[in-house]
Hints:
Number of domains: 2
Radius of gyration: 24 Å
Number of strands: 7
Number of helices: 15
Strand content: 15-25%
CATH architecture of the largest domain: Orthogonal Bundle
Bound molecules: iron/sulfur cluster
Distance between the termini: 53 Å
CATH topology of the largest domain: Endonuclease III, domain 1
Mean pLDDT: 95
Low-confidence stretches: none
Amino acid sequence: MLAWYRAQQRDLPWRHTRDPYRIWLSETMLQQTRVENAIPYYERFLERFPDLASLATADEDQVLKQWAGLGYYARARNLKRAAETVVRDFGGVVPQDPERLRALPGVGPYTCGAIRSIAFGQQAPVVDGNVRRVFSRLLAEKSPPDALLWRAAHELVVGPDPGLFNQSLMELGATLCSPRRPDCRPCPVRDACRGRATGDPSSFPEAARRKPPRAVQASCAVLRRPGRPSQVLLMRRPSKGLLGGLWELPSHDSLDSDGLAAAIRDRSGLLAEPGDRLGKLRHAFTHISLTLSVIEFEHVGGRLRGRPAEDGSRARWCGPAARRDLPLSALMQKSLRLARL
Ligand code: SF4
């Protein structure tokens, strides 16, 4: 595996470092995100936050801005909180002790194993989706339990370079041992592979049955500032939950424009009435298929409240420069374009 990996590995930016912060960042980004999408984000993030100290002292909006478009924003919020903890409690040095690592926000068994093995050279196992597929084929197990996979990873990561070994397993799953058509001929472990011996390695592991995404209708308001029409009302979502901490046009979980007006009032103090419907946008999240109706609103009274609303959301008027600086989801950017903003 090591010889194959040394010869065949893809040249990826995080493979030129053993800096635990950079390894941690790359492993966090790569959960739920494809390698080619993660690369430009990884490079931009490091330009803006080159080390843990700069991330720890950064404003959360700026951190989310660098993450905007990658999705699963809890990853960015956790990374920032973990950076604060490392700077405050460990003098800015990422702890090598697994218990301390696991206690950091967002660090699960996979991230912990990846940091320990790749950055610190410890014999720590990793199991991600790629490793799961490789093991399930090697063992010809249709649905191997997690405990079996972790035990296998633990027993195998005993050689001289555990970081390289773990990366070789993940690389095998990401390249030759692909989900649909594994390319077994050049595979370094083909002679040991029971799945290949069955003649149908792609039938391992059994595909998990996914629930179809839930259809959700929602609406958002384009409310321009009286006398300054290039500015619109944006709100910061509460930190927890879907798109937590991102800024958006005021929104409501239904097509009911009165409900949207009430949401604007409750969360900003402004009174507004619905006008034209500008259009509908569709967006697929993992569990939700969203249809968002974008509605023009007119300000009819009330004053913008300075303090955050009860749910932790905040509201402000934003011109073009502020909109460029704030973290907005891809869907909100589309909504603004629909309103020609
Ligand atoms: S022999 Fe084929 S199925 Fe088995 S691990 Fe290698 S690529 Fe995957």
